[in-house]
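HUMAN: Please help interpret these tokens:
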Amino acid sequence: LRHFNDSGAFLGKHPFISAKDERTRIMETLRTSPDTYFQERKNIELNISRYSSQLNSKTVSKEKKDKARENLEKHQATLQLYKDIFNEFVCQKS
């Protein structure tokens, strides 16, 4: 905000704003190219499966498991966003 007060322009986007942009992008993808939407969603589900298996593996190092846990949580949140947007889209069509 200090930069905005000094110059009248923002330095960048706040994470909340970028999350709304991602939501808009996903909704637009679903509307214009459902195949792309479902391919992206499938890739997210495959990432969740991969990171889950890394967490359950006994041969993976602790550092790699920690990174896998972070990625798993990120992809689970993204998948939930995709599901929420799909449910909204279906309700709008009804």
